[in-house]
Structures are given as C-alpha cells and as structure tokens.
Amino acid sequence: MDEGFWVFGYGSLMWAPEFPVAEQVIAQADGWRRSFCLRSLCHRGTVERPGLVLGLEEWPGHVCTGLALRVEDRLWPEVSARIRAREMVTEAYRETQLPLALADGRRVEALAYVMRKDHVQYCGELAPEAQAEIIAGAAGGRGPNADYLYNTVAHLAELGIPDDGLAALAARVRALRA
C-alpha cells in the first residue's frame, strides 16, 4: 500500500496546498503555535511595505491544530520540490520533520516549515493592533495580506478548529479596511 509522505499545513497550505492531496486529516503538533510572526516581502507584502504571514513557532505547552496532508510516494519528489520553492523563498523557515497526532488516532511524521527566530524577518512580539495595521495595508505577489488572514480563519472555522486570536485579528483588520 502507498503510505505516502505527510506535510503539516497550519496556514495557507490548509486552503491552498497547490499539490495533489491523497488524504487530509486534522492533526496536532505538540509544543508549537501558529502566529503572525513572519514579515512577508513577496507573497503578501513587498520589501517597501512588508506584510505578515503565519509561522510555526516552538512554544512549550501549546498545541497547534492544522491539517496533515498526505502525498503519494510517486509524487513526492516533485511535490516536495514545489513546496520547498514556495516556503523557502527567503529562508525564514527551517524545514523539519514534526511528529503529529492525527484526529483518527494515527501518529505520523510530517514535513513542516517552522519559523527561524534568528531570521531578520521574524517579528514574533508584535501586538495584535500592530499586526492588524500591517495586514490591513499590505499586498504582495499572491494578493492582499488581508485575504490570507480571512482565508485562514474561514478554513479553520470550516474544519472546526477554533482560533479565537486569529478570529479577533480578522475582525480588527475588517474594521480598519471598512
């Protein structure tokens, strides 16, 4: 049987993986949190006006819930190269294997892109108000920064994954853009 390879999606990979997904299962990564901690210089912002995108930060005591996405063995070389090209544009992430607990009881190792706190684009201590200001006004090669936030919040809600912090941030951004 084709067991495939797994990728952990905690942001846009959940709603726009851009590769064939053989299976998707809600998954948890213990000791990690999703946060708007990465200044985006190309996808959702520019060098002149950086946006913010999600990073996966190591955070003891937290659990990040997202999606485990399985890729068929035969597709893995091409898919992993495409994901790497997408996620490693500025090398702000570190590519790693994370243990995940799947909602159906399985445990898998998944490719994940985690934040490098030593990278110049890391900005993990921004207050929600500052995050909202940045996200409300930024846009990059993949479109408005606000759309990235709205899509993530909508997809998390659709999956039944609560994230009150992101929902509140989306409300702040909507108010600023109104």
Automatic annotation (TrEMBL):
Keywords for this protein: Lyase, Transferase
EC annotation from Swiss-Prot or TrEMBL: 4.3.2.7
Signal peptide: none
GO BP annotations listed: glutathione catabolic process
A GO cellular component entry from the record: cytoplasm
Organism this protein belongs to: Paracoccus sphaerophysae
Enzyme kind, highest EC tier: lyase
Protein name as it appears in the record: glutathione-specific gamma-glutamylcyclotransferase
SUPFAM superfamilies, per database record: Gamma-glutamyl cyclotransferase-like (SSF110857)
PANTHER family: CATION TRANSPORT PROTEIN CHAC-RELATED (PTHR12192), GLUTATHIONE-SPECIFIC GAMMA-GLUTAMYLCYCLOTRANSFERASE 2 (PTHR12192:SF2)
GO MF, one annotated term: glutathione specific gamma-glutamylcyclotransferase activity
Top-rank taxon, per record: Bacteria
